[in-house]
Amino acid sequence: MAFITFDKEKLKHNYQFLDDLFKSNGIEWGVVTKLLCGNELFLKELIQLGVDEAHDSRISNLKTIKSINPKIQTVYIKPPAKRSIKRIVQYADVSFNTEIETIRMLSKEAVAQNKIHKVIIMIEMGDLREGVMGEELIDFYGEIFQLPHIEVSGIGTNLNCLHGVMPSPDKLIQLSLYEQLIEAKFNKKIPFVTGGTSVVVPLLLQRMLPSGINHFRIGEMLYFGNNLFTEAPVVGMKTDVLKLYTEIIELTEKPKVPTGTLAENPSGEMVEINPEDYGKTSYRAILDVGLLDIHPDFLISNHDDIKIVGASSDMLVIDLGADEGAYKVGDLVSFDLKYMGALSLLNSDYIEKKLI
């Protein structure tokens, strides 16, 4: 059975690296936990490192976090759905918002639950996912400040999440100027300008981050340690907190070219034949993982002699070349992971999760 490992020492190393970085720059931060898909074993390991703010896009995951440590500030990081308002106020101390009507409902529910619910207003800065348009901000805030049991604790933005728009000093300066405009117009203090995500950390490392950005929410860099501008590892961070292990369930020398009439496979793909492969053979191994668990594009091979051929729903085929080497049926083959691949694996009930 394929399994994914969560290395607690490497996680601790990366957490300390980031905590030191932010503290030395006077920045507060929270951990994005959505990658862990509510896995209680992994969440406990993360929380015991000293996390005091957890961000997630699933209410059930925030509920699990609260059950582990009720003192952690939980943040719901997408615009709330109308049918989820009651549970969001119950399990999220803070929510990201872009719709006035939604905040009205949060206010009404917060009154009913006798709670103060904090909101962070997300601003559209060019990536065209969630966010209030800049020209609407004044009217938007004018109404929110009047709502009972609602506390405006921040202004924020997301970049690089949909169309790949990268953060820049200019965009982040604009975000902090919006905060100053709102504070001056309404004589209200907005504590946090949360413009920082994993993709923004390289600007901080290069001392290019505008001083107005005082809050980060970090997921990908904590678990993978990569610079999202260059895709290279950040010096001093670990890149393999998470690793996939798969088992060889078949190993046979086979022709390199399929025989018979070719059509689309169940994934809608047409195989392209390299004419140089006709008449050649190679050793092919089948691994016990497939598209149901992860797409091959999100796998990073730990072995130079392995080439991924393709995958079906439950099996992955790799090419070992003209020599099977030291591999045999039953051996484990490991892979490093890209973020979206780890996300699908951790969300799969078919993949065992192990803490190491």
UniProtKB/TrEMBL annotation:
Residues 7-226 form the Alanine racemase N-terminal domain. Keywords: Isomerase, Pyridoxal phosphate. GO terms for molecular function: alanine racemase activity; pyridoxal phosphate binding. SUPFAM superfamilies: PLP-binding barrel. InterPro entries: Ala_racemase, Ala_racemase_N, PLP-binding_barrel. The keyword Cell membrane does not apply. The keyword Isomerase applies. One of its GO terms (cellular component) is cytosol. Its cofactor is pyridoxal 5'-phosphate. Signal peptide: none annotated. It holds the Pfam family Ala_racemase_N. PANTHER family: ALANINE RACEMASE (PTHR30511), LYSINE RACEMASE (PTHR30511:SF3). This is Alanine/ornithine racemase family PLP-dependent enzyme. It comes from Acidiluteibacter ferrifornacis. The lineage of its organism: Bacteria, Pseudomonadati, Bacteroidota, Flavobacteriia, Flavobacteriales.
